[in-house]
Amino acid sequence: MEKLLNNNLSDKAKYDYTLVCRALDNNDEKAYAEIMARYREPIYYMLLKMIRSEVDAEDLTIEAFGKAFKKLEQYEPTYAFSTWLYKIATNNCIDFIRKKKMKTLSLDANQEGEENSRNYEPIAYTLTPEEEIIQNQKIILMHKVVDQLKPRYKALIELRYFKEYSYQEIATEMKLPLGTVKAQLFRAKELLHEILKDRRNSI
Question: Which domain holds residue 115?
Answer without folding.
Answer: 1-124
